[in-house]
Amino acid sequence: MTPNLFLLDETRAWLLRAAEDLAAAAVLTAPATLRSALFHCQQAAEKSLKAFLTWHQTPFPRTHNLTLLSGFCLELDASLEAAVAPSLALTRFAVAMRYPGETEEPSTAEGREWLAVARAIFDAICFRLPPETHPDSYGPRG
Fold it and tell me: Does pTM surpass 0.85?
């Protein structure tokens, strides 16, 4: 496999996982599963950023910190700022909402808003990457 094909495959794999997280978040926006939806929103944003870094052959640490990852992305393409900035707050959903002790109860409306933010970063990243890296389907848009 040539490096170019490897790069396409690796980038596409990250975007496919991001699309799967978006689809899961869309399904989970009911009140009983909203915390899981928010986790998947964060994961979709994280994996989208990692896809961008992978395509640009930029190493990144094993982290859920969207501020750190987006910083690397913005060094490569400052035009991502508008899509990245709203997604930074998603970092808190990587861990905090998944375990007992979190007192904040998210609303269904908040879940839909965060899903839109996660989709926006995913779409912005896809727009900047070759179509061959895109998943065949981005999952439910509902």
Answer: yes
